[in-house]
Amino acid sequence: MENGLKESGVTLEDWRAWHEACALDLAPEGVRCALTGFLGRRFAGAVRRLGQGGLAHRTPGDKDCAHLFETWCCLHQRREGKRYKDWLMTRGDRSQGAVESGVSLLLRKVVLEWVRMEFNRQPVLSLDASLTAETGGLTLEDLLPDPDEKELSFEERRWVNERVEGWVAAMTRVERVAVAARREDRSFVEPGVLRAAGVGKSALHNHFRAWIRSRAEDVKARFPDLPPSESTALALLILEECARKIFLTFSVEVPEAPGCRVMENQDEH
Amino acid sequence: MNTDQKRKQLEGWLRDYTVWRRLGAESGEVAEEKDADRSDAPDFSGEPAPETGQIRLWPSTDFRDPPLYGLLAAPEYGSWGVLPFSPLALPATPKELKVMEAPPLQVVQGWNLRRISAVQARNSWCAGRLPESESFKLEMFLAWMNSGEAVPALLADHAGPPLAHPLDPRHEYLEDERERTDRTLGASTASGGQQSAPFSKAAEPENDYEV
Which of A65, A106, B1, B22 could make an SS bond with B5 (beta carbons 3.0 to 4.6 A apart)? Predict the structure, then answer.
């Protein structure tokens, strides 16, 4: 099947013919039709995956999808286009499957650009509703607090200071590594961080989120009427103070403890 | 740029990121494939020699990754600086800079600056050049990155919003992008985004060396 039909009339020879031609428009008619249909189907499939009924309804026709693909991947006569095509045709084992997998990877960017364009035209799409899910319930105000907002009170700061020791004492090794790494702006994929934690990236993320959320609940229980931006500021102070305590405890008192190894080779992204 | 404008910028970035993640969900369309035979590797012999300001394209080594576009910064001690391009159209953090308007290459990841050998720089396709008009902005951006100062006013509209919250989804984006670049260029190329990479008009590294 390598050189034969794989998906509705498309063959590896069609992709090779497209590679030889400078653009789809310059390819033989049979090749153009087969590839245009293929690109249209993959484009529509990607839009369906977004789960936005309104967008699926507005998906362009096959010819327009193919045009967007060539335009936004710069696959016309320009130098960039030739290079993308070279990459596509030399992927993996150079089979038809490898080429078409590569096309799907490129279509991700093309569909993203198309969604941007459609959203700008009609910003009532339900994408905004899913933003909250993406941020785990945090609002833009939480993520970017106003720097001019009121500072934390003495009572709030004292409450944090009194509890830091207890929070740190109750932390697991993974939580300590995660908190220390985040405070240092270190990535959870750094080999040193993963080695110190002894778990994978996803587990480290999960432990970290759970720990932060648990502290946010402590804040809510103690100060139930705080506005969101102030709660966030307090949670950040807790993170800062706990990270400082971890650093002092595990790098001075117990230098061989796993939590302090995360402080080696400090760098930032 | 005031806080409202920064929030609007972040909102736009989060919207793009949400779409980007959903589009990357497992669809069965990107099939696992056999590795290429080494003797069958792409031929880069016809490519122009690397130069500062060139946009180069490195073939991905993992079947799940698209190819990696990067901008060549000036060479230092025989190695080239590479600023990978973000897959998104808007800068995520202050250490990302929008350098072009038209897709697919719009934003460079200053935080993800890499150092690669001359051989690795040559083993890529030359895909274009950064417009001359953007060189000054980029030079200023790279100089600022190591300064520890607030983002200069001239760059503020082209750089991303601050990253402060520990649960901000941008942390995950940074890690995913770092991993993607590690897979294509190698983890040892990471420079931590702290080294300077002056954007001068130098032509070639002082010394080529093999890895």
Answer: B1
